[in-house]
Specification:
The complex is a heterodimer.
Chain A (H helix, E strand, L loop, with lengths): L2 E3 L4 E5 L4 E3 L2 E3 L5 E7 L5 E7 L5 E3 L5 E5 L4 E6 L8 E8 L10 E3 L3 E6 L1
Chain B lengths: L4 E3 L2 E4 L5 E6 L6 E8 L3 E9 L2 E4 L8 E7 L2 E6 L8 E8 L10 E2 L3 E5 L1
Parallel strand pairs in B: 2-11
Antiparallel strand pairs in B: 1-3, 3-8, 4-5, 4-9, 5-6, 7-8, 9-10, 9-11
The chains are: A mainly beta, B mainly beta.
Chain lengths: ~120, ~120
């Protein structure tokens, strides 16, 4: 079965600093990978996704993520964090057609990002 | 598009009462998902549908929970009877199977349920 691990429950950075949120997945083949963001009191919003091709994907709000097959990782990065980036971030993995659990996503436990001024 | 619509946004009820949460997916989407989010357990998938048919309900906590999707534009999640431990935010999400972005899910704003 597919699974996702986000090792960091809570990360604090200063505004303007760089950011990297870690995500490791377990899946028998190359999965579909996603990062979502949730602001307080809101639903989840898609930041970016990886299906195939270029392993560095660009998303909204200046975020990017890199798929590394050898490390089973899909870490989220941003070069300069803004106070408005404070939120909870979720990594998710989805099975490809023909795989078990086709159609659904498995989410990590989330990483809460706090931004200090 | 209006996005995924959920109602009510907030629900406060007393233990033992029946609660019905409603969801309207994005038009044309063929997958619908119900999640529950709590501080202790994080985001849990309860059940999901494909073309109105339940595919996996293994996440439904117990028989007090039931979900239906009578047509492509409406789904309900019912809790009967409700208990305080059901207090959580319930999200509905939908997605479209189009062979490339089929499981990119779009989430509704959630229903915050409080059972007293």
């Amino acid at each position: 079965a597919q699974s996702v691990t986000q090792p960091d429950i809570h990360i604090t950075v200063s505004e303007g600093a760089s950011l990297e949120l870690r995500c490791n997945y377990s899946y028998g083949a190359t999965p579909y990978l996603f990062w979502y963001v949730q602001s307080p009191g809101q639903g989840l919003q898609l930041l970016l996704k990886y299906f195939s091709g270029d392993t560095l994907v660009q998303g909204i709000k200046g975020f990017e993520a890199e798929f590394k097959r050898s490390q089973s990782s899909f870490n989220l990065r941003k070069p300069s964090v803004h106070w408005s980036d404070a939120a909870e971030y979720f990594c998710a993995v989805g099975a490809r057609p023909g795989g078990t659990s086709y159609g659904k996503l498995t989410f990590g436990q989330g990483t809460i990002l706090t931004v200090h001024p | 598009d209006a996005g995924v619509i959920q109602s009510p946004r907030h629900e406060v009820t007393e233990m033992g009462q029946e609660v019905t949460l409603r969801c309207k997916p994005i038009s044309g989407h063929d997958y619908l998902f119900w999640y529950r989010q709590t501080m202790m357990r994080g985001l849990e998938l309860l059940i999901y549908f494909n073309n109105n048919v339940p595919i996996d309900d293994s996440g439904m906590p117990e028989d007090r929970f039931s979900a239906k999707m009578p047509n492509a534009s409406f789904s309900t999640l019912k809790i009967q009877p409700s208990e305080p431990r059901d207090s959580a935010v319930y999200f509905c999400a939908s997605s479209l199977d189009r062979g490339g972005s089929y499981n990119e899910q779009f989430f509704g704003p959630g229903t915050r349920l409080t059972v007293l």
